[in-house]
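Chain A, query sequence.
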Amino acid sequence: MAKFLSWTPLHSRLHRTLKQRQLLAPQRRLLVAVSGGQDSLCLIKLLLDLQPKWGWKLAIAHCDHRWLLDTGIAAHVAKIAQAWDLPFYLQTAVEVTQSEGAARQWRYQALIETAQTHGYQEVVTGHTKSDRAETFLYNLVRGTGADGLQSLTWRRPLTPELDLVRPLLEISRAETAHFCQTMQLPIWEDAYNQDLKYARNRIRQELLPYLKTHFNPQVEQALVQTAEILRAEVDYLETAATQLRQQATQSEQVGLNRLVLRAAPLALQRRVSRQFLQQVLPSAPNFEQIEAITALITAPNRSRTAPFPGGAIAEVEGDWIRLKSLTQP
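Chain A, predicted structure.
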């Protein structure tokens, strides 16, 4: 595999996107997650070709879940790294899990550990426009609200010092496939991508093709545009809610001032309630828990919620919503 064959329109698009969105600064140390599939191979090849213009230090990381049908893929990715003279880091799961969520959580933790151990400044993944559309639909049917619908953003923090960057979010899976074919890249065909027991695969193989055929041939682009609009709106609302929550709290006790919140729009009331619960609950609050806090903003004195995880309740005390243990008087 040659390091560089030709400059394509995809090279130009990525180069322009990186500059316009300021995603990856020059001279950075980038850890690129490579599964062996077409999207991640397209990403690493594009970054490698752009490297002379940006001065990055690139490395490949591969996460081996020890799934039976993936046998041999780690060695395959290692050969690619060797052919391109790139550092290669392999993380192998201690326990085998078939859960999508658990596998994703382990994978990101493995990438964080690799980046921290070897001094890389960003983790870069090959998520595409197609992934973003699929995630939109996946979260829509799960009822995650605007925050879930705008997920798969261009950049998000993994730790306070380490960001995850997704530079291919304007590029479709069809385009990465064409690029890999043009560049003669050795794609590893992941058998698990065809397994319809996974919800994301059913969205990819069944739901999106149905929507394209019967509703909108450009549905993927429409979903991505909606996600991008929501991203900006969620950022704005979160900032406004944080400012409102700070106005409605006092440092000496856990509580919210109802008079401050009462004049705010319902959207901000809900976000303040969620932020409030995120500070005190062991897990992310659900819709019902957020609504329970929001309802207390206008509820009669001494109104209270059902117990939250951990046994605490929220109760109205005059102008305040207080969070207290059930053992408190």
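The domain at 9-222 is CATH 3.40.50.620 (Rossmann fold). Residues 219-247 form the longest helix (29 residues).
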